[in-house]
Structure formats: C-alpha cells, structure tokens
TrEMBL record:
Transmembrane segments: none
InterPro entries reported in the protein's UniProt record: 2Fe-2S-bd_N (IPR042204), 2Fe-2S_ferredoxin-like_sf (IPR036010)
Swiss-Prot/TrEMBL keywords: Oxidoreductase
Source organism of this protein record: Shimia aestuarii
The protein's name: 2Fe-2S iron-sulfur cluster binding domain-containing protein
Gene3D superfamilies, per database record: 2Fe-2S iron-sulphur cluster binding domain, sarcosine oxidase, alpha subunit, N-terminal domain (3.10.20.440)
GO molecular function, one term: oxidoreductase activity
Length: 99
C-alpha cells in the first residue's frame, strides 16, 4: 500500500506482522520502527499526558522522545527500535499517566 508519507516503502524487504493499537500491519523486517509505521500511514504515535496534543516522530535519532510507543508493557522510542515479527505496539500514555 502506497501512502502520501515522505518515508518510502522498502518493497523488496521481507515483511513481518505487527499490531499497532489493534490494527494488523505488515512492516519490513529489520526496518526502523518509526519510519516503517510512518510509511504505513501512522502519523500519531501518542498524545501528551497533560494537553492531549498528538505527537509523532520528530528527530528520528532518539533525542526528542516524541515517538514514544508501548511495546510489551514498556515505553520505548520507536525511532530506536527495530521491526521484528509479532510486535504488539500501543500508543504510549493512552490513559494520561506517565509511564
């Protein structure tokens, strides 16, 4: 599936199945998670705990923390995570609490 994302799909890479907020996605194995999610059309990774403002990847190098997601109960930076088969990803701070 092609999107209007500035991140290009890696068409020749093997795909693995992940789940993002209950939606099944097929992402390139070994790719940067933040880039792969954006290429798949995911733009909002979390909402800020105080104002609820939407956030997504900004720096793509682990400095800003705007791409936080929750994987297996642990909050991680998507830009510092590699896509592997079976990831269960949810939006961080979805209940308004800091984790």
């Amino acid at each position: 599936m092609k999107t209007a994302s500035p991140f290009l799909e890696l068409d020749n890479e093997p795909r693995v199945n992940v789940v993002f907020d209950g939606n099944a996605l097929s992402l390139p194995e070994g790719a940067n998670l933040a880039a792969a999610l954006m290429a798949a059309g995911v733009n909002v990774f979390r909402h800020t705990p105080v104002s609820g403002a939407p956030r997504g990847p900004f720096c793509m190098m682990g400095a800003c923390f705007d791409c936080l997601v929750e994987i297996d109960g642990t909050t991680k930076q998507a830009c510092m995570t590699v896509v592997t088969d079976g990831l269960e990803i949810t939006r961080a701070h979805r209940d308004g609490a800091l984790t």
